């Protein structure tokens, strides 16, 4: 893609929301200001709703705390996790935009090997706006990137690609390791900049990390449910994993693409591995059953929309994973609640933005 | 990650000579090749004497050697052009084989240092592959990286790696139409990663810069599918693409891994893509038909060796593709004959 000689408006300025879950503060936004300021933010405030989270001046945003979530969803609020970054999916639910970029509040701007600051948002947009190639692996990675193409032997009939539903970015510095790996290698840092974007092939699952993620809400939004985690739940740190497995099964079924690789962000905070271990440990051994389940799931061809696929998945979760632990029965129910909430908030009749219920640009925030 | 120690005598470097003067090629690779035994196979169509510099431990095979092993009057197997290297694979008794086209020289990495492609291929082949679940930080067995959160623990020991496919800087392995459309396109992007191509995912397995575990998949690297007007430039061939798809099916079935990525080699300018485009392209069209076949072919549980797998694939090719075009029927015959040849040569 060639770059225009004169500056143009930030791409997708009015079509993309940036969703940020936070329980601490939003200081990290200062560093992102040059890249994020043109865009609308949806802040999902986790934890104590009486705490005031200050948003740096100059950003256009909506902010939702637990009270807002309860008010907007009523009894359906039970599907949104508390005290876990899984609550971010509430932001996906209430957004009215076509695209979402979500990022954690301990993720900063990284530099590429030339020392240039990486505009992660722009790279995600490029990933989403160019096709994916899930049916045949291109050894030179994303053929739609500048300076790359399909290699010899790549079937011509597959060179148009399919629409990209998800763009999964990576992390320099603190890598996204699980607790056991963190305990064994507390000092390992990811310093390797891999200059590639690639499509994850059809039929292959992957661990989707929610720290630096973008997706096309119209294509896959209802599948981006981050599950029941955190407070009152037997498991944590598997929210994005769960969303990723569901999403991949559905994108494979619907013929959509998932990309991974660039952009990198700089992940600054290494969470406590002992705390993480407590959250993850059930997930570590449950996943040995969960993975074969997702690898063998087939969705009927009548499932032509994401919601239908997701509802079908929830039935299969209840049936096949329910026997492992009652948690999965609860989760399956929550998946149904989520779809109900999604349809309710995103039906064509819903013209007034949910933003009317939220706090806006600084006017009502109180300083502690 | 601990250093991989392999015995030098476990490796053969097989070079197909399509040009007669290999001096600059061999000198460029001398630092990386000199430890190892080399097998050089001369394209039987090449008339001139081969020029090879001294100081290498090598065996040279030519047309007369091929004629002793393969009766050209009764066989349809051809070692012409790029397929000459397969004779080298047939003759090798080593565990690991590395093969690089004779128009490639060592590339430089992003730090400006010469890449030892041989060492990288050996590392790829001797560390586990992870075909059943995608690791977003790529090869978890590389230095400074690991499995990410959410990667199932039961899959973390990985499986053996059967094939290592390297890449190319400068002249990438594009087909003639692509290269003709973008004549100045050169690959300058160094992607610092190795990754396992997931199970049941097909890929174009280029023969330009490749290595494999001969003990596990040796018979799979075979000369089977020739275009009617196959030429002496890579973009006038698809033989490696056919073989590559067979090899991927075999590896998937035997639960072996196929890695792609590093090492890079520097592929030199050669040939004219527009000229190549003028040749007949029936063969390339045919390849479109075979993709659905390779994506869906399944082998029986009884196929437990690479030879078994090739025999089954050949039978399926003959039955499902052979009817529509005699080129496929011939490819299937070549595959069956190759396995016979393979066993014969090894029983001597």
Would you kindly provide a written description of the structure presented here, covering whatever features stand out?
The complex is a heterodimer of chains A (368) and B (348). Chain A is of the alpha/beta class and 368 residues long. Chain A contains 10 helices and 9 strands. In chain A, α9 runs antiparallel to α10. The radius of gyration of chain A is 20 Å and the shape is globular. In chain A, 51% of the residues are buried. Chain B has helices at 23-33, 63-69, 84-91, 117-126, 176-181, 214-217, 239-253, 273-277, 282-296, 306-321, 326-347; strands at residues 11-17, 37-42, 57-61, 96-100, 104-106, 161-170, 194-196, 209-213, 257-267. Chain B has one domain (98-347). In chain B, α7 (239-253) packs across α10. In chain B, strands 1, 2, 3, 4, 5, 6, 7, 8 and 9 form a 9-stranded mixed beta sheet that branches. Chain B has 11 helices and 9 strands. The longest helix of chain B has 22 residues, at 326-347. At the A-B interface, α7 and α8 of A face α7 and α9 of B.
Order of helices and strands of chain A: EHEEHHEEHEHEEHHEHHH
* Cα end-to-end separation of chain A: 48 Å
Terminus-to-terminus distance of chain B:
40 Å
Task: Please report the number of helical segments of chain B.
Answer: 11
Low-confidence stretches of chain B: none
Give the tally of β-strands of chain A: 9
Task: Provide a brief overview of the structure.
With 368 residues, chain A is an alpha/beta fold.
Keywords for this entry:
heterodimer; A: alpha/beta; Spore Coat Polysaccharide Biosynthesis Protein SpsA, Chain A; nine-stranded mixed beta sheet; B: 348 residues; alpha/beta; 11 helices; 9 strands; UDP-arabinopyranose mutase activity (chain B); cell wall biogenesis/degradation (chain B); Probable UDP-arabinopyranose mutase 5 isoform X1 (chain B); RGP_fam (chain B)
